[in-house]
């Protein structure tokens, strides 16, 4: 495109040969080779923790490979640091966005621009950055500090910043996570538009629609190795790939257990973890009740009158598009945000405005969006921390039950909490929420950014908890899984509840599709 | 929006258009310096003494703020560059006809050369390790000076010429501050500041978008060391003597750090406000040096705890709140 010295015809845009990355004794990437031709869009899929992001780190230059070579446009770039690769045209995004927090959104892009063209006229640079912001839908927040952006907008900023480099090759790391269908459609349009301008794109993605509609070829990574590759249709149709990765999300449920996540949940008596309550009759006050709750951040009103009830033993799901206010609602319930109007009651008693720690003491536990594992603590310490004010024996009992529920955690009990794969971290977050023997657990977007097969596994354990009588409030992006688990469903829109009713009834309601999926296909 | 943040975003300086924002220092600062210069002849001896201290401290704080506030490079090595500047000037000025300005510049250059020399080593360290690395540098230099007879050893050197009159010292200090202000304004009101802050916020991510962090940090480090070295030279000229414990002592480092933290890190007005505050405090409590130290410590703790962006940040926050309330 912009290079003057075009190498010989037939040279691929990117060729990686036998890449290996070892961390001490752990092999994160093992003999991975891949080739990307000019104009190609390639997808990389695989379970959480398979080494996909590590591969991007190697390609982008964040760290040096232990063995293997990388050629970009015929040039050996294996030894080049990230900055030099970026200047040659490799742009990458981080799976967990890393914006420059104390700079404005526009400055985030200008940094890329000025690093490449230090003497470009400011007017030209700003116009170019504003074009990109417009394109990814961030034009309205250009002057805001990046710190003020919520997660999904930070993801857009990741893409925008990589584009500000005017890259030839773009590496997109899970930019589709957490988007609802209409937004996924938007993302696919953006990627399709980019393929006209860029020389090549590699996408790591769990959202299969993106993979299916954008990529010609797929590589499957498992345990750091390339497990399979081929055309998108071939790979997605493969039984082996279904077993290690796709799970039930793709076609009929498979009987084969997942390869790298333990499958069948053992039947255990969960009474010490689950504060069981008989299903209440309608006359008793509900365990949790929200009455016309309003809340927001500063000037922004996010919740405009939410009323809902959760009875003991019930599973209630809250659905809605991004920006509908689901996470804000979760924060209000946990007490991290105070409602500006309305009431919240537990067992009929008004608890509006109570601090988060006091709400937790009432038996409301939260499994927060983004997992929030304590990084310096081990898996076991993360669990033990959550059980306060109980005897050591009781603590150990609860811990062992969590280990039975999630055997993966037991194997890794002494590892650092954040050293595990995304799925295992989510198990830890769920286990931690149970350690206080809560009366109600709020699960906030637990499937965000997880491989389909891992989502299956998590929802299986939620079903076990439900059977044990745990009262749950589930905030979820994945409609199907939530509907399958919940007794009652509320669909939010613009900070209000637009639709509620029993799960079976909501499933049939044409309004669900209209409200949630929007005008997409 | 399903916001992750629990706090409202800090509003960027509102109203002014970006270009107006970038232009204001160029319009207001020259006027400020003319006013300051015009007031020098009016000062009493006491006033001159205070003015010198204030100007020197603001210069040092400007340099440190560039490094730590804008660059995220929290250095405890101020004393090393300050001391090198001081020794250089003392060694060079042997005859009354020698140029003071050139000797000061030489002090800055020697400090910058030292910064260049150690940059490879200290930039390998990040965060706290960088801080400790620079502290080690200052200590190493002090011990070297104590033991090296060629530069007077523990008893130090005396300036061969008579120091200029006090009023002249204030002119020099004002000139140096004007130079420092020019350098720091150039570095913080231009696109260099965007690159520097990008490296501060996330060095890896900056690398990933083509910024070469080493170069950016080195430029900031060299600028700050030059200014610090020149300030050291000026102090040596005023005192007329240098010795390792005073010029390479940690007290300079701590004073500068306190000024910037109390004033406001990474904020343009932070150093000046912090210096005025601390000098005023020390004058008010001149009779009770122990109390002054304790109070400075308590204020530091309070500011770090309650107003991480210092006094300037606190005022900005209050103004923003007031504005938000009346809207």
Structural commentary:
The complex is a heterodimer of chains A (521) and B (327). Chain A has helices at 52-60, 82-88, 105-116, 122-136, 151-164, 181-197, 208-214, 232-237, 239-246, 326-334, 356-361, 379-386, 392-405, 407-411, 422-434, 452-467, 479-485, 503-508, 510-517, and strands spanning 14-23, 26-36, 40-45, 67-72, 75-76, 90-92, 169-173, 200-204, 217-222, 225-231, 288-297, 300-310, 315-320, 341-346, 349-350, 364-367, 440-444, 471-475, 488-493, 496-502. By secondary structure, chain A is of the alpha/beta class. Chain A folds into 3 domains: 14-96 and 167-249, P-loop containing nucleotide triphosphate hydrolases (Rossmann fold), CATH 3.40.50; 284-363 and 440-451 and 470-521, Rossmann fold, CATH 3.40.50; 367-438, no CATH class. In chain A, the strands form 4 sheets. Chain A has a 6-stranded mixed β-sheet, with helices on both faces. A 6-stranded mixed β-sheet of chain A has the order 16-17-18-13-19-20, with helices on both faces. In chain A, strand 7 (169-173), helix 6 and strand 8 form a beta-alpha-beta unit. In chain A, helix 4 (122-136) crosses helix 5 and helix 6 (181-197) runs parallel beside helix 7. Chain B is an all-alpha fold and 327 residues long. Chain B has a domain at 42-249. Chain B is built from 14 helices and 2 strands. In chain B, strands 1-2 form a two-stranded antiparallel ribbon. The longest helix of chain B is centred in the last third of the chain and has 27 residues, at 213-239. The radius of gyration of chain B is 20 Å and the shape is globular. Residues 1-17 of chain B have low confidence and may be disordered. Chains A and B meet through helix 2, helix 3, helix 5 and helix 10 of A and helix 7 and helix 8 of B.
């Amino acid at each position: 495109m912009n290079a003057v010295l075009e190498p010989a015809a037939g040279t691929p845009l990117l060729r990686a040969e036998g890449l290996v990355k070892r961390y001490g004794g752990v092999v994160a990437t093992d003999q991975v080779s891949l080739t990307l031709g000019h104009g190609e869009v390639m997808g990389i899929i695989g379970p959480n923790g398979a080494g996909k992001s590590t591969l991007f780190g190697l390609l982008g230059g964040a760290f040096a490979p232990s063995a293997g070579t990388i050629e970009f446009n015929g040039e050996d770039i294996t030894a080049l640091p990230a900055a030099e690769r970026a200047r040659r045209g490799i742009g990458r995004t981080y799976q967990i966005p890393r914006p420059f927090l104390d700079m404005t959104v526009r400055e985030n892009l200008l940094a890329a621009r000025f690093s490449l063209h230090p003497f470009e006229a400011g007017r030209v640079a700003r116009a170019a950055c504003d074009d990109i912001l417009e394109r990814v839908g961030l034009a309205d927040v250009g002057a805001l500090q990046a710190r003020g952006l919520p997660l999904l907008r930070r993801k857009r900023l990741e893409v925008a910043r990589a584009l500000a480099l005017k890259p030839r090759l773009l590496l997109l790391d899970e930019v589709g996570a957490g988007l609802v269908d209409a937004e996924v459609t938007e993302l696919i349009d953006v990627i399709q538009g980019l393929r006209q301008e860029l020389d090549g794109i590699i996408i790591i993605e769990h959202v299969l629609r993106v993979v299916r509609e954008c990529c010609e070829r797929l590589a499957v990574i498992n345990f750091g190795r390339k497990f399979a590759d081929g055309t998108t249709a071939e790979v997605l149709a493969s039984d082996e790939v279904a077993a290690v990765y796709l799970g039930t999300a793709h076609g009929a449920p498979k009987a084969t257990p997942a390869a790298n996540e333990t499958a069948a949940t053992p039947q255990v008596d969960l009474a010490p973890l689950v504060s069981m309550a008989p299903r209440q009759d309608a006359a008793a006050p509900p365990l949790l009740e929200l009455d016309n709750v309003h809340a927001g951040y500063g000037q922004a009103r996010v919740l405009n009158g939410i009323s809902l009830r959760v009875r003991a033993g019930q599973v209630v799901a809250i659905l809605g598009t991004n920006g509908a206010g689901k996470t804000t609602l979760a924060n209000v319930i946990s007490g991290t945000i105070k409602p500006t109007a309305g009431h919240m009651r537990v067992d009929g008693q008004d608890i509006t405005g109570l601090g988060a720690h006091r709400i937790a003491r009432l038996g409301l536990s939260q499994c927060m969006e983004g997992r929030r594992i304590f990084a310096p603590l081990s898996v076991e310490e993360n669990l033990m921390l959550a059980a306060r004010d109980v005897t050591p024996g009781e603590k150990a009992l609860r811990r062992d039950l969590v280990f039975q529920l999630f055997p993966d955690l037991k194997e890794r009990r002494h590892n650092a909490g954040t050293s595990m794969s995304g799925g295992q971290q989510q198990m830890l977050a769920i286990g931690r929420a149970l350690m206080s023997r809560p009366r109600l657990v709020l699960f906030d977007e637990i499937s965000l950014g997880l491989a389909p097969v891992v989502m299956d596994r998590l929802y299986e354990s939620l079903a076990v908890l439900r059977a044990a009588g745990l009262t749950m409030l589930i905030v979820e992006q994945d409609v199907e899984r939530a509907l399958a688990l919940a007794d009652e469903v509320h669909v939010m829109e613009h900070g209000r509840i637009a639709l509620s009713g029993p799960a079976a009834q909501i499933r049939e309601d044409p309004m669900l599709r209209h409200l949630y999926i929007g005008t997409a296909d | 929006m399903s916001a992750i943040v629990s706090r409202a975003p800090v509003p960027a300086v509102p109203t002014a258009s970006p270009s107006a924002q970038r232009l204001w220092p160029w319009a207001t600062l020259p006027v400020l310096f003319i006013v300051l210069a015009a007031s020098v002849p009016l000062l009493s001896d006491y006033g001159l003494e205070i003015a010198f201290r204030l100007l020197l401290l603001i210069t040092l704080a400007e340099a440190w703020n560039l490094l730590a506030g804008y660059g995220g490079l929290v250095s405890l090595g101020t004393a090393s560059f300050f001391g090198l500047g001081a020794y250089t000037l003392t060694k060079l000025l042997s005859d009354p006809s020698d140029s003071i300005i050139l000797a000061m510049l030489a002090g800055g250059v020697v400090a910058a050369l030292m910064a260049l020399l150690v940059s490879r080593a200290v930039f390998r360290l990040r965060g706290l390790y960088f801080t400790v690395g620079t502290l080690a540098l200052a200590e190493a230099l002090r011990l070297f000076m104590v033991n090296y007879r060629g530069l007077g050893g523990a008893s130090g050197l005396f300036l061969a010429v008579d120091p200029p009159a006090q009023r002249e010292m204030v002119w020099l200090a004002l000139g140096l501050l004007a130079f420092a202000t020019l350098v720091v304004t150039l570095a913080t009101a231009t696109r260099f500041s965007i690159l520097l802050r990008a490296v501060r916020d996330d060095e890896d991510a900056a690398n990933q978008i083509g910024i070469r962090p080493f170069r950016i940090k080195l430029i900031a480090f060299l600028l700050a060391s030059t200014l610090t070295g020149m300030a050291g030279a000026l102090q040596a000229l005023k005192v007329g003597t240098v010795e390792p414990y005073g010029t390479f002592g940690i007290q300079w480092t701590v004073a500068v750090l306190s000024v910037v933290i109390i004033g406001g890190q990474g904020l343009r007005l932070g150093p000046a406000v912090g210096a005025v505050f601390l000098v005023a405090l020390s004058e008010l409590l001149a009779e009770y040096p122990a109390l002054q130290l304790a109070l400075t410590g308590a204020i530091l703790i309070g500011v770090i705890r309650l107003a991480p962006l210092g006094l300037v940040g606190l005022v900005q926050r209050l103004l923003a709140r007031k504005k938000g309330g009346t809207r």
